[in-house]
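Example (one chain per record):
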Amino acid sequence: MKMRKDLRKLCICLAICLLLWGLGAPAGAVGQEVLVARGGMGCGRMDARGQEFGGMGGRPGGDGRTIHQLFASHQQIRRRVEEIPGGIRAVTESDDPAVAALIQSHVSRMYQRLARGQGIPMRGMSTTLPVLMRQAASYHRQLEIIPSGVAVTETAEEPELIAVIREHGEEVSGFVNQGRLALCDQMILD
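Predicted structure:
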């Protein structure tokens, strides 16, 4: 039974990775739609440019598109994470002004979603986001916009939540280092 479940996860992971890589398709592919599985959030449709239709409230564009653009630009992003008492301080930046703006937009939007209790795109592909969503009122987040990206400080008082904050820092660093491949790693390890 476990082997069948692991095989199913691997197949889903491969399908998602193929679909995500297809989002960077040649210009002639624009306008074609692909289905994007999003863990516990169901599926949405996305065209080859990463334009989202459905899933996140049925609105086109937005957070899903930004996330996919960041994955496509991951080699232009650098990230430093420092453990501090109660959590982390992370600096995520790029020398490319367009990528720096994407980083700033993405982190700002995710913090807004946490503050409002809204869902977060791709939550099913992260082991830490569901916990951080549920515990949003239990930890402190500070966002500093810097010219090349963002500096964030996240802290908590409960040891279990501190561990999740630090694990999320590692998870995001994996996304920066590996791009879309990190999604597959997350799904296989789940």
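Caption: Residues 2-62 form one domain.
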